[in-house]
């Protein structure tokens, strides 16, 4: 799997701070998309009235069993940002068929992993495009991130091919 992390942030300083803390724990960022205005909900207005979305993908293949660990880590990094958090971090993973995100919030379409962490298949890849579900977040449903996700999917395909050739 390719580790993907979405970040809601108020400014470049907080995005750089987040990237630095993520790289200390998770390794080198491979790809970044940033500066996407986030206007889909006011749920995160406690962070800032004006937010941007960024995504990072990380070098190498990862095990899906680490999803809960990644969410616990990102919650810890959020807490380090201040008493009133300055960022929101959502880890997940991508492979050839799906994008899976971690959450601390339960819902009918989420599967409990452990330690208060849930997983949801947010998008699936079908017919050479990313397809949402009825529960998919509006920003993911919009297709705004599809180009980035497709590039990371291509990275995954290339790395999987190399991995299989090495076996």
In short:
By secondary structure, the protein is α+β, with helices and mostly antiparallel strands. It has 4 helices and 8 strands; from the N terminus they run βαββαβββββαα.
Architecture overview:
32% of the residues lie in helices and 34% in strands. It starts with a strand and ends with a helix. Strands 1, 2, 3, 4, 5, 6, 7 and 8 form an eight-stranded antiparallel beta sheet that branches. It is an alpha+beta fold.
Question: Characteristics of this structure?
Answer:
167 residues, alpha+beta, single chain, 8-stranded antiparallel β-sheet
> Total strand count, please?
8
Measured on Cα atoms, how large is the radius of gyration? 15 Å
- Which overall shape is indicated by the principal axes computed on the Cα atoms? globular
Helix content: 25-40%
Mean pLDDT: 95
Largest sheet: 8 strands, antiparallel
Assign the structural class, choosing from mainly alpha, mainly beta, alpha/beta, alpha+beta, or little secondary structure. Answer: alpha+beta
Please count the helical segments: 4
Which percent band covers the strand fraction?
A: 25-35%
Write the layout of secondary structure elements.
Elements: E1 2-9, H1 12-26, E2 29-38, E3 51-58, H2 67-80, E4 88-94, E5 98-103, E6 111-114, E7 117-126, E8 129-132, H3 138-141, H4 146-166
Antiparallel strand pairs: 1-3, 1-4, 2-3, 4-5, 5-7, 6-7, 7-8
């Amino acid at each position: 799997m390719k580790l993907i992390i979405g970040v809601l942030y108020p400014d470049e300083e907080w995005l750089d701070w987040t990237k630095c803390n993520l790289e200390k724990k998770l390794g080198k960022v491979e790809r970044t998309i940033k500066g996407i205005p986030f206007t889909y909900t006011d749920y995160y207005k406690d962070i800032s009235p004006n937010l941007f979305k960024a995504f990072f993908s990380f070098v190498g293949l990862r095990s899906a069993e680490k999803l809960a660990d990644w969410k616990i880590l990102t919650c810890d990094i959020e807490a380090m940002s201040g008493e009133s958090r300055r960022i929101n971090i959502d880890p997940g993973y991508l492979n050839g068929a799906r994008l899976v995100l971690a959450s601390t919030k339960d819902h009918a379409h989420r599967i409990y992993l452990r330690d208060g962490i849930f997983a949801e298949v947010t998008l699936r890849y079908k017919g050479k495009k990313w397809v949402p579900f009825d529960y998919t977040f509006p920003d993911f449903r919009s297709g705004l991130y599809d180009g980035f996700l497709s590039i990371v999917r291509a990275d995954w395909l290339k790395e999987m091919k190399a991995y299989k050739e090495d076996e």
